[in-house]
Amino acid sequence: MTKFNRFMVRGAVALALGIALPLSAQAAGSKEKEQLKAQQTEIASVRDQVQALVDRLNKLEASNAQLQQSNAQLQQANAQLQEQNAAFKAQDEKFEKAITTAEKARDDQSDALAKTAVKVAAADWAGKIKMSGDFRYRNESIQRDVKTDQVRDRIRARFGFGAKINDQLSVDLRLATGGDDPRSPNQTIGASGTGMARRTIGLDQYYATWKPLTGTSVVLGRQPYPWFRPGQSVLNDGDINPEGVSVTYRNGDFFGSGFGIWLSEIATAAINPVTGAQTAALSKQGNGANFNGAQVGYRFHLGDVTTLTAAAMYTNCGGCKGHQPYWVSQGSAATTAQIGASANGNSVDANGNLLYQFQTTEGSLELNTKLFDYLPFQVFANYAHNSGASNGQDTAYTGGFQIGKASDKGKWEAGYAYERLERDAYFGQFVDSDFAGGVTNGKGHIFRIGYSPLKNWTLNATYFLNNLNINGTADPVKSPHDESYKRLQLDFILKY
Questions:
Q1: What pLDDT shows up at residue 187?
Q2: Domain coordinates of the chain in residue numbers?
Q3: pLDDT bucket at 73, cuts 50 / 70 / 90
Q4: Is pLDDT above 90 for 364?
Q5: Confidence band (pLDDT; 50, 70, 90) for 119?
Q6: Do 427 and 264 form a contact (C-beta atoms < 8 A)?
Q7: 133-495 homologous superfamily
């Protein structure tokens, strides 16, 4: 009900009451007074009812106003919910679009990965191969009492790679300049009879490694030395790569090895390996020859920067006595004297066969520390005794030191060693090819110095001041007793 309608109702009631009162007064009588009174009572009742109706209408109006206010609030809340719903809907559309885009990107990435996986699988073998090598250019001069001074330039190039088959198996192979000389990959520039001819390349190393247990390696083929060699010892030539089988074991600081090396094959008849002819003088040649041994060692920690490595080894040259288990450079054209010279100083008979067996006990020591807490310093010693020789010329020893290490740009090193190698103390095929002319029965000093101008580039100088034929007996190389032997090597070395 509007305010105007309420105003009309109230006016009508007041008008009716105002008219009724005067009329009642004019017709007043006793009976009429009673009727009038009754009417007034009725009118009062009606008026109360009207007033009650008005009060009720006021309450209804108040309730209606409250409902209108609540309705307005609900409409406002509904509008807000609609706005939020619209925002959520827009956000959902963005999310759906983003998900669609991400799914497409994922599918594209999956396709790209699948294509890449094919390429990776094709290149997987190449990724398992590790390559390395070195190049050396050497200027060398040699002075001897009984020969003309010799000056020559020599090159050595080596290139190798290793392939990892799985966690237990690997294969390594290395090529090197040089022919079939087991102690030298050097090629002399302009060598007599070869001039500018192309130089030969040979298989320097080829071996497989199997690691069946932690710390254990089984190596088959032409391999690096399977035994520990101390410091700068030249008792063994560094270019030798023995052929055969070896087993090495390392557990913490303990290490050990056992090896069997073939020197010559087992022949079906008594055949001279040089001339190819059967001969009674070489009746035992058919047994073949091998070099077997074992070594054990331990590295002791003497401080934070100091270690001492000690090792003991025993070797036996099976089938060596009475045979020629050595490389002969002259091949089938070799004379008996040349065959004897190929024994590298060991005692031989008139036919070039070895006179003694080689059953050698060897000990090694190597101390590594740092001077002033930063400068590497090494001291080493190597001793060998051959119980198979009965001529008293059965002992060899070497020792020396090195200070510094030319291992990186600006680094330097210097070293000194002394060695004495009696005629039959050591199997001549393994002795260093530079010291004392590459034969046994010599002694002398070795001086070294090196500097690295750049990383992987080293300049070295080595000077040998030696004496040959120290026991004074007849010698295959026709050297007088204590002949002076001087050798200077200047090396330019690159590693990669």
A1: 92
A2: 1-127, 133-495
A3: confident
A4: yes
A5: low
A6: no
A7: Porin (2.40.160.10)
Binned at pLDDT 50, 70 and 90, residue 377 comes out as very high
User: Is 464:486 a contact under the CB 8 Å cutoff?
Assistant: yes
Confidence of residue 330 (pLDDT cuts 50, 70, 90): low
Residue 165 has φ and ψ, to the nearest 5°, of -80, -45
Q: Comparing C-alpha atoms, which of 47, 52, 11 is closest to residue 39?
A: 47
Segment 184-213 mean pLDDT: 89
Phi, then psi, of 129 in degrees rounded to 5? -100, 130
Total-model pTM: 0.73
Residue 277 has pLDDT above 80, yes or no: no
Three-state DSSP string of the chain: CCHHHHHHHHHHHHHHHHHHHHHHHHCCCHHHHHHHHHHHHHHHHHHHHHHHHHHHHHHHHHHHHHHHHHHHHHHHHHHHHHHHHHHHHHHHHHHHHHHHHHHHHHHHHHHHHHHHHHHHHHHHHHHCEEEEEEEEEEEEEEEECCCCCEEEEEEEEEEEEEEECCCCEEEEEEEEECCCCCCCCCEECCCCCCCCCCCCEEEEEEEEEECCCCCEEEEEEECCCCCCCCCCCCCCCCCCCCEEEEEEEEECCEEEEEEEEEEECCCCCCECCCCCCECHHHCCHHHCEEEEEEEEEEEEECCCCCEEEEEEEEEEEECCCCCCCCCCCCHHHCCHHHHHHCCCCCCECCCCCECCCCEEEEEEEEEEEEECCCEEEEEEEEEEEECCCCCCCCEEEEEEEEEECCCCCCCEEEEEEEEEECCCCCCHHHCCCCHHHHCCCEEEEEEEEEEEEECCEEEEEEEEEEEECCCCCCCCCCCCCCEEEEEEEEEEEEEC
* Beta carbons of 440 and 428 less than 8 angstroms apart: yes
Angle between helices 30-127 and 3-26 (to 10 degrees): 170
**Token digits of residue 33:** 């007074």
Has residue 22 got a pLDDT over 50?
Answer: no
Residue 278 in tokens: 């059967």
pLDDT band at 23 (very low <50, low <70, confident <90, very high): very low
Single out the residue of 173, 156, 178 nearest to residue 327, CA to CA: 178
